[in-house]
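seq:
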Amino acid sequence: MDFEKYTTIISSELGLTKASVFNTVTLLESGATIPFIARYRKEMTGSMDEVMIAKVRDRLIQLKDLDSRREAILKSMREQEKLTPELEEAVMKAATMAELEDIYLPFKPKRKTRASIAREKGLEPLARIIISQKYNDPEIQAERFIDEEKGVKSAEDAISGAEDIIAEWVNEHAYSRKRIRQLFEKEALIISKIVKGKEEEGVNYQIYYDYRELLSKAPSHRVLAMLRAENEGFLRVSVEVPNDKAEEILDRIFIKSENASAELVREAIKDSCKRLLLPSMETEARGWAKEKSDSEAIRVFTENLRQLLLAPPLGQKNVLALDPGFRSGCKLVCLGPQGDLLHNETIYPHPPQNEVKESIHKIKSLVNAYKIEAIAIGNGTAGRETERLIRAIPFDKEILALVVNESGASVYSASAIARKEFPDYDVTVRGAVSIGRRLMDPLAELVKIDPKAIGVGQYQHDVDQPALQKSLEDTVVSCVNMVGVEVNTASEELLTYVSGVGQGLAKNIITYRNEKGPFKSRDQFRKVTRFGEKAFEQAAGFLRIRDAANPLDSSAVHPESYHVVDRMAKSLDCSVRDLMQDAGCRSKIKLDEFVDEKTGLPTLMDIQQELAKPGRDPRQKFEMFEFSKEVHTMNDLRTGMKLPGIVTNITNFGAFVDIGVHQDGLVHVSQLADRFVKDPNEVVKLNQKVMVEVVDIDIPRKRIQLSMKSQNKSKP
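struct:
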């Protein structure tokens, strides 16, 4: 791999130093993970963050793919004996995949075309005569190519075939394609029309029945909505540029005279535009528009996922969790501080059974028996009714009662992971456990669910699935490693996302833990099967051991830097534990004295911060929240009402807010703040507590319009 070439390109494009890019590329190619590089190799990367390292990685992949395609094209052209020094130079200089494919297009093996048929009839020399535009008598020139055996019966037949060849030349001309591509980039319109007879069935897409917009300005959610409607058979979608402008551009490239031959070339240009070049460019434009829209939708989804994964945890508490329901009852579980299932049963406080007294008695007795500190209530069917019941119970002590977003809990409960965790319980019990654990530690529980099932994105099922999966995995890995993982309590699924671990090693860690008991030191990781030095380097700093003999084992300080901390403590004539507990000691440390070849100031500053708050959870503190007691269903809503809510989803066009009526309301981007807002993430974050005003209620369509104007006082 040409590290030097890739480094030069990437450093120039991203505005980074060559040294930092070269080191980052080297680390990535050696198998280092993004969280590890960002946290423990700052000296090598110039303190790049995870976002920038991911950009380097993604651009590196693109450049490698480009070079791979370049080699394949050169090989094909050599085999065809068509490779000239000029062509080879052009191929080697091509900077994009589109440019590379344009050069290769004339040499690409094709199925039978009108131009290839004309060539078989011996008409290519005539095409060259006509496109040269030297002759004002193309018909006379064409008579020389009449050959009835080959199917050329007249001069008109010969000219027609020659025009087919010229049309193909126009389409395959690299500069022509570049200019028409530029026209599409600047002036292409995306146009949608309703499919006749689908007016009623496609009513959800009514605004797109006769719609047009400049493609370069169309926001991702509109493009994806139109393409989805097209896939569902409701709309016809096209991407178009003015034909006359395209033909004018091509005329300037190919028309050299004003004679009869030039007129034939003009006819070939028109044919090429209609039949070959514009359809080809439309496909390409749709492709890059979809790619751009996918990228934006994936960005929104991953940002939402990050916020959800990093939601404040309640922590290790005894929790009673309820998965509410009417006819089938409320599934109830009691969980210990580590999320272990202690008890489960079903109560029936709602219609049709209405066993209210029995249910209250049961809940009170369980709260006392299991020393419950908090109650988690799923926000699905019968959620508000169950919340009202819980809040009316006079407990003997103060109990936190919280509504939990249960989106994805049913997916988890039916999964292989849930069956493995709870083989003797049905899906309803598993779902209630997931709700309770999600309150205690959202990150640890949500990693067990396919991120696409959590429901915090827009059009996540329409975008490029491999790209989405890669981005989501990056996000989960980033969040898990940012928080750190307590190795003695972590699930196999959570361990899988730790830098350098993966599925196989996660299983081995669990097996070792079950057989040998809790880990007592990080050095013990090396005794786990297949936990080699490379895995240790990547993972050790992110795996924590609470109450370990060496206090650094519970921190984010990497074992490779323990000797530095030992030197710090020795220089102050104190222990490492003293250094971590005494701010006065730490204030005496002069970092410059501990810089060496491997450890620079960025790492030393990280160590100093970590010594002050070892193993600190970077997530915000847990906050209580309660819906308005005035509203429980949409029928209770009135315009002008001001209500508390929780942001459940963020899209490019606004934010969805749960106000406790079983139907999220939309705060359109224009209603998020008094100022102009381009990106809703500037104003709100997922799970943020907000105050909203009801603007409009459409009960038949189950739509609620909300506003946060002049009310957006809470900070993300």
